[in-house]
Amino acid sequence: MVKVDRDAAVSGISSFGLMRAAGHAVAASALRHYPEATRFVCLCGLGNNGGDALIAAAALAGSGARVAVYLMGDPARFTGDAARAFAAVSIPHQPLDTYVPTIGDVVIDGLFGAGLSRAVSSDVAALMRTVTDLTLPVIAIDLPSGVDGRSGQVLGESFQAAQTVTFMTRKPGHLLLPGRTLCGVLQVINIGIPARIVTSHRASLVENTAALWHKAVQVLDPAAHKYRRGHLIVFSGAAPSSGAARMSATAGLSAGAGLVTMVAPTEALPTLAAHLTAIMLRPVDTDEMLSDLVKDTRLNAFVLGPGFGAPDRARRYVAALSDRSLVLDADGITAFRDDPQFLFAAFRGPVRLVLTPHDGEFSRLFPDLAADTALSKIDRATIAAERSNAVIILKGSDTVISEPNGRVAINANAPPWLATAGSGDVLAGIVGAHLAQGMPPFEAATSAVWRHGVAGNKAGEGMTAENLLRAIRPLPRMPSSLARP
Ligand SMILES: NC(=O)C1=CN([C@@H]2O[C@H](COP(=O)(O)OP(=O)(O)OC[C@H]3O[C@@H](n4cnc5c(N)ncnc54)[C@H](O)[C@@H]3O)[C@@H](O)[C@H]2O)[C@@H](O)CC1
Ligand SMILES: [K+]
User: Fold this and answer.
1) Which ligand ends up closest to the CA of 107?
2) Quick one: pLDDT at residue 477?
3) Cα–Cα distance between 61 and 55 in angstroms, integer?
4) Is 165 in the pocket of ligand 1 (CB under 6 A)?
5) Is residue 22 part of an annotated ligand binding site?
6) What is the spatial distance between Cα 283 and Cα 264, in angstroms, rounded to a whole number?
7) Ligand 1 atom index nearest CA of 8
8) Residue 221 banded pLDDT, cuts 50, 70, 90
9) What is the residue range of the signal peptide feature (predicted)?
10) Burial of residue 54, with CB atoms counted within 10 A of its CB: 0-12 exposed, 13-18 middle, 19 or more buried
11) What domains sit in the chain, N to C, each tagged with a CATH number?
């Protein structure tokens, strides 16, 4: 947005005009959502977020509403457009520390927006808590104050907004947690920056929607013969822990892999055979048996990790698979905690590896990134993808998917109940199925995460991983014009 603003100014667009449009949009939203408000309380910081709030206050007052304005500091410190707004609106104001939150108030939050750079002060934090305790509705301008727009993290304390009005495009903090929840209902308002300027800076960072991967889906032919829809291999651990890999294999079949074979130690085969019908089984007990297996180049995608145990064997098998498409999950990731570099070195060249860590597993492969609190989830996933030459699916309610050349997607369709035992095994199987069908790794991963979220919503609250398996649905094949950008 900084670059967009700069180009808008260069092209002759008045930045004060943008501020006026922003402030009027906020006022319109306030009147539309809270026509019954006793008074609108506009809290103004000294930056442009406060300038937006001043314009909103003047517009609300002009429409006949009762308005109170509280300023966070000496108005002589306003500069630039905010100073211009302050001069233009001539509206009574009081210091912020005199505000007593009162039932009936609707709070217009213009304390901090994109310029938040440190934790909010204890006084402001106390005010935020009082407003929250009284459950006063808060309309946040651009971002709920206290939320870092870059990371979605809270710096000190934040408002819980009922509505957030932002401008031109969403920022990472609107999608990453906890920012996404703190925004309440998000409105994105066009304040008049030409689309050509916004799209010229379209980041490689997007929400994970069908627009990102539908072209890769279109090349798949669901009617194709099973031998043309790929052959997915899922490794099983010992019999007692084979349930996780069975979940992955079953998900792989449901997600469209033409053939799925589970590879397992001989002792586990009776257990697997008792549970599986459409999935084939093959014993592999030694490294030699594995090298025999991988001579068959029709086996085009592998999932290793769910319930695998055996870290030594995991490392040797992964080394033998380093020229293939591999989804490495769970125990497969943990197996490399002492030497992640070995894993990364094995998968140099064209991207073939998809890693699916939750935060704990991530910290085993990338301890320095996990410990660095200055990094956002997007930064961590991006650097990890570069370092490992893998597509990273950094899981959570706000899963972030990144690839080595810098594309990043934030997923936002997962219901909270998707965080359940076996859910990650299902996801690994779906990714494996997409790889087996020939999707490129980033598209395979993003579409799998999205499909997993859809299945979670379909399965509903209280679902088990078995319900989730049955809720896997075909991927949409929509033209890009219908897909949300
Ligand atoms: N194109 C756009 O996106 C537009 C953005 N506008 C607004 O401009 C805002 C950004 O304005 P600014 O860059 O002036 O930033 P902010 O208004 O968010 O605030 C920055 C000010 O607060 C101070 N500050 C930061 N953290 C603090 C803390 N914890 N405690 C006390 N002071 C703190 C900073 O030193 C700076 O003076 C956006 O959020 C948006 O509301 C609008 O005016 C319209 C155009
Ligand atoms: K704000």
Assistant:
1) 2
2) 75
3) 10
4) no
5) no
6) 5
7) 1
8) confident
9) none
10) buried
11) 2-203 (3.40.50.10260), 206-474 (3.40.1190.20)
Residue 470 CA to residue 465 CA, distance in Å, equals 9
221 is in an annotated binding site: no
Provide the 3-class DSSP secondary structure of residue 30. helix
331 by DSSP, 3-state: which? Answer: helix
Instruction: Tell the residue number behind the tokens 């000294």, with chain if given.
Output: 46
Q: Residue 45: nearest ligand to its CA? A: 1
Q: Which of 16, 48, 148 to mutate to test the pocket of ligand 1 (most atoms within 8 A of CB)?
A: 48
Coil/strand/helix, residue 205: strand
pLDDT of residue 219: 78
C-alpha dihedral, 109 to 114 to 118 to 121, nearest 10°: -10
Pick the ligand that lies closest to the CA of residue 49: 1
Pairing mode, strands 105-110 and 299-304: unpaired
Establish whether 121 is an annotated binding residue.
no
Per-chain residues with Cβ under 5 A from ion ligand 2? 109, 113, 140-141, 145
Beta strands in 47-90 (DSSP E): 67-71
Q: What is the 3-state secondary structure (H, E, C) of 338-387?
A: CCHHHHHHHCCCCCCEEECCCHHHHHHHCHHHHHCCCCCHHHHHHHHHHH
Among candidate residues 358, 348, 359, 326, the one with its CA nearest the CA of residue 444: 326
CA geometry: angle at 451 spanning 448 and 452, to 5°? 85
Q: Is the CB of 45 under 6 A from ligand 1?
A: yes
Task: Quote the CA–CA distance of 237 and 305 in Å, as a whole number.
Answer: 8
The pLDDT assigned to 376 comes to 96
pLDDT in tens, 43-79: 999 999 999 999 999 999 999 999 999 999 999 999 9
pLDDT tens, residue by residue, 431-444: 999 999 999 999 99
Q: How many whole angstroms from 342 Cα to the centroid of ligand 2?
A: 46
Return the structure tokens found at 453.
Answer: 């979220």
Q: Which residue has the tokens 């233009």?
A: 88
Other Cβ atoms within 10 Å of 194 Cβ, number: 14
